[in-house]
Amino acid sequence: MSKHLLILGGGTAGTMMANHLRRRLPTSDWQMTVVDRSEKHLYQPGFLFLPFGLYEESDIIRQTRDFIPRGVEFIQEEVEQITPESHAVTLRGGRELRYDILIVATGCRTAPEETEGMLGPKWRVNVHDFYTLDGARALREKLSNFSGGRVVIHINEMPIKCPVAPLEFTFLADTFFREQGIRDKVTLTYVTPLSGAFTKPKASKKLGHLLSDKGIELVTDFVAERVDQDHNKLVCFDGREVPYDLLVTTPTNMGSEAVRRSGLGDDLDFIPTHKSTLQSLKYSDVFVIGDATNVPASKAGSVAHFESETLADNVICFIEGQPLKEEFDGHSNCFIESGHGKALLIDFNYEFEPHEGNFPFAFGPMKLLEESRLNHLGKLAFRHVYWNVLLRAWPLPGISRQKKKPVEV
User: How do beta strands 332-339 and 30-36 pair?
Assistant: First the structure.
């Protein structure tokens, strides 16, 4: 009788795991199922470009089934409950799925309801987000008619998906308003709970200089207590206030509501996970990947890609009764749009900070922690790589799951 490997989530991480493992597990021995509530697969990095009219919706939406490999059952349904003690998952319609191995790839969600006043009557009127498709659509409409005023880009709290995206939005907004001929009528303010522009000090310094050079105010250590929609201002727990005419916020990010219903997560509904093996800290036959984990790595597609390579090996190790590889090192790399057709590229992990140098090889062709046109083109090209290589779990030449120690110069 065949065994059952169940993957919860058909987003980036879940789809990659289905492709990795279908190629490695014999169909005679292993049945595989992917469960996701949506028939649409969304290219989430594209949400950043949609409000500025740089992408169309057709660029970022595909059918989920198109990326699930042959031999893998796809069930479109909401997950109601995960019960690891019984090795079972219950779907919203009442169907129960049993498993021998469970991979949780349920991602994370925005939770604007966690901040007092954010979901008031002006939500998606002059208080917007771009971390959802609906939010990016509404913001596109708002920006198309915006004539000037105080624009505040705000991060509510960390961690968030793609921690550089709010910075990228800020830089792209600067470019957008200049191209519209109204930059002199717009003040841009970047508000963050961090003590600098980014989580990593070296990159934070570089990005902070970019903000200053573009005439963008940086407000740090700002933890929002509430959004005062009556008076159009953000209010910090320490009493500071930031007024706005247009607030572009990144709400609190939390794990899946199914994780919350199942009691498997921490205070933000992220699942406690071994940071190097990606095995659940509590259940040996449960593995977690991507945004659903609580590992101290960025919640980004590149991280899920690197995690998937290690996790695919570890699922095989688990099946064969071998020790798991403590291999995932938090490796992340990402392009950072800096406006005017340029971008930076950063590469780091748990141990090593972003640093200068070349990527993906010692001779280049891309520069790390340096603005360039080529990095911008790389950012745009990534969409093609995502649909045709990354989701299908094909290797990316020169880009390893483990980050090498930077060369001292």
Answer: unpaired
Long-range pairs for 210-217 at CB < 8 Å and ≥24 separation? Answer: 210/171, 210/338, 210/371, 211/167, 211/170, 214/171, 214/174, 214/188, 214/339, 215/174, 215/188, 216/170, 216/174, 216/188, 216/189, 216/190, 217/187, 217/188, 217/189, 217/190
Percent of the chain having pLDDT more than 90?
90
pLDDT in tens, 103-137: 999 999 999 999 999 999 999 999 999 999 999 99
Same domain assignment for residues 248 and 123:
yes
Judge whether 233 lies within some domain.
yes
Residues in a beta bridge with 6: 33, 102
The structural domain count of the chain equals 3
CA angle 160, 217, 48 (to 5 degrees): 40
Does residue 139 sit in the same domain as residue 97?
A: no
Contact between 292 and 299 under an 8 Å Cβ cutoff? The reply is no
Q: Which of 293, 320, 347 is the last residue of a domain?
A: 320
Whether the predicted pLDDT of 408 surpasses 60:
no
Say whether both 129 and 164 belong to one domain.
yes
SS (H, E, C) 255-318: ECHHHHHHCCCCCCCCECECCCCCEECCCCCEEECHHHECCCCCECHHHHHHHHHHHHHHHHHH
Whether 311 and 348 map to the same domain: the answer is no
Position 210 in a domain: yes
pTM, 2 dp: 0.96
Instruction: Convert the pLDDT of each residue in 230-264 to its tens digit.
Output: 999 999 999 999 999 999 999 999 999 999 999 99
222 and 124, same structural domain? yes
Query: Does residue 238 share a domain with residue 222?
Result: yes
